[in-house]
Amino acid sequence: MTGLTSIRETHEVPARTGRGFAVETGELIRITDLQGSQPVDFWAFTRADHLEFLSCEHTKPSIERLFPHVGDSAYTNRRRAIVTVVDDTSPGQHDMQFAACDPTRYAELGVEGYHESCQENLHTALAGLGIGLDFTPQPWNLFTNFFVNPDGTFTIKAPESKPGDCIVLRAEMDATIVVSACPQDQNLTCGGTPTDIRVEVGR
Length: 203
Known about the structure:
Elements: E1 7-13, E2 18-23, E3 28-33, E4 40-46, H1 56-63, E5 73-75, E6 81-88, H2 103-108, H3 118-128, E7 140-142, E8 145-148, E9 154-157, E10 165-171, E11 175-181, E12 197-202
Antiparallel strand pairs: 1-12, 2-11, 3-10, 3-12, 4-7, 4-11, 5-6, 6-10, 8-9
């Protein structure tokens, strides 16, 4: 396993919440599913221009896969590598098809009133860093088991990640990162119960 020999900062991210932080070129980002079956919505924005960001729709044609595997990069909307997968101890389910959960999605699922969402977590985290966006990029959904069937339909399955499973990403440029411990509890996205994650940054 590729580890961090020197950890610069650690973020304990409780279930249903998000965190934003900065990384430097070459730093490693280790994201750990502490209790298992917990998806992480992941966003990355270039520090030089936050309108350049990790883009799922640009990544897939660049790597000719549905999502990156070890050795693959994720690309920005300007087709530049922004992070690369250097290690992954999970089953490797990292969806790039689904938008972040948001209030409209919860209403669609029958929720009445307020419900935490990855969209809100993104914008709250960015606001805490002094960044405002008037749109929500599609996240990279780490540890997320949205299964693509042969007929082109999707099946939302519980993640198969186990407690302690992690993915390690290398920053290919100075970037602003946001992670959300997904609060989806209306289907099997989080195995029924959202839980905590940990993020470590270093070299």
